[in-house]
Amino acid sequence: MLRFSGAGVSDVGLVRPHNEDSGFVGPYVSLVADGVGGAAAGEIASATAAYAASATALGRFGRPPELVLAEAYAAAAHGVRSGVQRDLDRLGMATTLTMLVTDGRSVALGHVGDSRGYLLRDGVLRQITRDHTYVQHLVETGQLSPDGRATHPWRNVVLRSVDGDPEGRGLDIVGVDVRPGDRLMLCSDGLTDLVADVEIAEALADSEADEATELLTHLALDAGGRDNVTVIVLDLVDGPRVVGDGTVLGALRDPRNVVDPAAVHLPQVS
After folding, report:
1. Are residues 233 and 209 in contact, defined by beta-carbon separation less than 8 angstroms?
2. Helix (H, G, I), strand (E, B), or coil: what is residue 250?
3. 147: Cβ–Cβ under 8 A, 6 or more apart, which residues?
4. Which candidate, 213, 35, 225, 191, places its Cα nearest to that of 113?
5. Least enclosed by CB within 10 Å: which of 27, 166, 232, 253?
6. Residues 6+ apart with CB under 8 A from 25
7. Is the pTM of this model over 0.85?
8. DSSP 108-144
9. Is 241 strand, coil or helix?
């Protein structure tokens, strides 16, 4: 049976006053959520979405991962929307969401925003998400070279997120071609804005999962740490089913950041 074995770190960084990232690390579901910069209550948005999405996935283990991801997104969007409705000072809050789910046989990825997912196989690192940003749009339409992304003044303008909009486009959901021994990484842009892919690949290839999360976090801090940094490193293993939910990271560690978790209704997706 396929499952994830790994570790995660979420650090406030060196500039931001508090952590608006949330994460969850579990054997069958893991995710990163980053409260969108400049919006109200980013930590509420990320923690609420991460709670609702992970709880939904945990409660639906064994179902097709693509369907689980769609239901997880619906729950996350409902939670964020409820948070705004209950406090209009939160109007505009939103979050990224990048999530991996396995049913023990296959793995699927759900993604919206500019957090990222990567796969490392045989020392080769490959990004398996597409940034939903204005700068990525410029690159894809030939208006900006890929080398210009890192310095463009609008590089952090996110075009899609979990914002509670009932008409939102949802997650990009794809199956991931994996095999035991692969290493997967989820991270917020606090890492990838500051640390080049070649450095990420070296850290992932040369360290155990827990050591890699610490090393990558320190690389981001050494490069300025201007944003919150969340890194989850997962090794795909084939073995007996394990018991246990997972570990929470960042803003999700404070239950006050989650909008009425016991009262969040989790909608069904057909």
Report:
1. yes
2. strand
3. none
4. 35
5. 166
6. 4, 6, 7, 8, 232, 234, 246, 247, 249
7. yes
8. EEEEESS-EEEEEETTEEEE-S---BHHHHHHHTTSS
9. coil
Closest to 269 measured CA to CA, from 105, 48, 66: 66
Query: 21-25 and 247-250: which strand pairing?
Result: antiparallel
At 101, list the tokens. 């789910």
Residues in the chain: 270
120, 112 Cβ separation under 8 angstroms = no
d(CA 111, CA 69): 9
Return the structure tokens found at 107: 């793995």
Structure tokens at 56: 């939904």
Q: For residues 119 and 126, give the distance between their C-alpha atoms in angstroms, rounded to a whole number.
A: 5
Which tokens is 259 given? 């909008």
